[in-house]
Design brief:
The chain contains 11 helices and 14 strands. By secondary structure, the protein is an alpha/beta fold. Strands 1, 2, 3, 4, 5, 6, 7, 10, 11 and 12 form a 10-stranded mixed beta sheet that branches. It starts with a strand and ends in a 40-residue tail after the last strand.
Length: about 400
């Protein structure tokens, strides 16, 4: 359900929370999958039905999932992630990897770029990588799970508030708060009916006081082209986050939205009503749309650095990293990736999209992806030094 306002969009479910994260270990799902697989699949299906915005599963179990010794368990996880597209599995760096046959919604968390087998899976586009720079879990699209919350079964989001970055200086905070309160009150009334009717999954307790909102920005590329500073944006969005948290009496996770359809709706809204920030959009005949996320549009050919740019001022305040979907004409080498990452001011979560990997995300009818062969490769000239002599052996 989408509710539009003056310079913002609130995205929620009708009668349930929007999204959430859950602990594999605390729910004892590994034991359930081994002893009663149909019941385990039933619980996952119920969970996905009541959380349409997506589910992040934390692999906090001491048992290594992706090791060759657990081929049976890995086969179950492969099937689950293939059948439930809104499920995302998050693993930490200590996990051992064995080759995966197809791209899955698996995010590998580590402070540095993947090495060894995880690096091969990452560069092929089979898994994604989250630069985990702080303790806990940084879940793209969900928020940050602090160490004190890791002992809980999970947590949920009421919904997501999306604001185009160029509109942040013109936003009326009070009208936004009223719209959020109305949306939350509607969900709570419907949730009470659902719970009283026994239509809420019994294995997941709903805790109202721990449920958060996700405040997201989009259109960062247009904001940058307008000549405004990232420090000002970081200050304004942090002030809004604190104001919302104090007024709504709940935690506000701060992130970046990459939905191309939402970015298009916000742009069409700005043009339709003549909002001041419509001047940041491209002129006709270009279709009105903000670039989804904080960097350049991933659907359009441009340098890798522009499609993966993350200003340091923004990286310091967000709860979860933005996702850079990097379309490339060939699988990059480890040396190429290392040099590329060193050229970035701050590193987002990265998912490579070589030619054999299907494109992800929602598609905008008027803004298609450019052909894969038009995207620039990851340059290798600066990472591999040419030999002084060529030996014929």
């Amino acid at each position: 359900m989408i509710k539009e306002g003056r310079g913002f969009i609130i995205q929620t479910a009708q009668d349930t929370p929007w999204a959430g994260w859950f602990s594999i270990h605390k729910l004892d799902w590994i034991n359930l999958a081994n002893t009663s697989l149909p019941l385990f699949l039933k619980q996952l299906g119920e969970l996905q039905e009541v959380l349409p915005g997506g589910i992040s599963l934390l692999w906090d179990n001491p048992e290594n999932l992706l090791s060759r010794e657990n081929s049976h368990l890995l086969s179950i996880v492969n099937n689950i992630l293939s059948l439930y597209p809104r499920l995302h599995l998050h693993v930490k760096e200590h996990q051992q990897f064995c080759p995966l046959s197809s791209p899955l919604n698996i995010w590998y968390h580590s402070p540095e770029e993947p090495k060894g087998e995880p690096s091969a899976e990452w560069r092929k586009g089979i898994i994604g990588w989250v630069p985990q720079s702080k303790v806990g879990w940084s879940l793209p699209g969900i928020g940050h799970v602090s160490p004190e919350h890791e002992d809980s079964i999970g947590n949920m989001l009421w919904g997501e508030i999306v604001i185009p970055a160029p509109a942040i200086n013109f936003l009326e905070a009070e009208s936004l708060i009223i719209a959020i309160e109305d949306a939350q009150a509607h969900i709570e009334r419907c949730m009470s009916l659902r719970i009283n009717a026994g239509a809420w999954p019994q294995f997941i307790p709903f805790q109202r006081r721990q449920t958060s909102w996700h405040l997201s920005i989009t259109g960062g590329w247009e904001y940058q082209l307008s000549g405004q500073t990232w420090d000002d944006l970081a200050t304004n969005i942090s002030t809004l986050q604190a104001h919302l948290s104090e007024t709504l009496k709940c935690n506000i996770q701060l992130g970046v939205n990459h939905d191309t359809v939402i970015a298009g709706i916000l742009a069409e809204q700005a043009l339709k009503y003549g909002f001041p920030w419509h001047n940041n959009l491209c002129l006709p005949p270009s279709h009105p749309s903000f670039s989804p996320g904080i960097s350049a549009d991933p659907r359009k050919k441009s340098p890798l650095e522009s499609r993966a740019s993350l200003p340091k001022a923004i990286s310091k305040i967000i709860s979860d990293p933005p996702v850079a979907l990097l379309r490339v004409p060939a699988i990059p080498s480890p040396e190429d990736c290392h040099y590329f990452l060193n050229s970035l001011e701050a590193i987002p979560a990265i998912k490579w999209l070589p030619p054999d990997i299907p494109l992800s995300g929602r598609f905008h009818p008027n803004i298609p992806w450019d052909p894969e062969n038009e995207f620039p490769p990851v340059g290798f000239s600066k990472t591999i030094q040419s030999r002084l002599f060529e030996w014929d052996e």
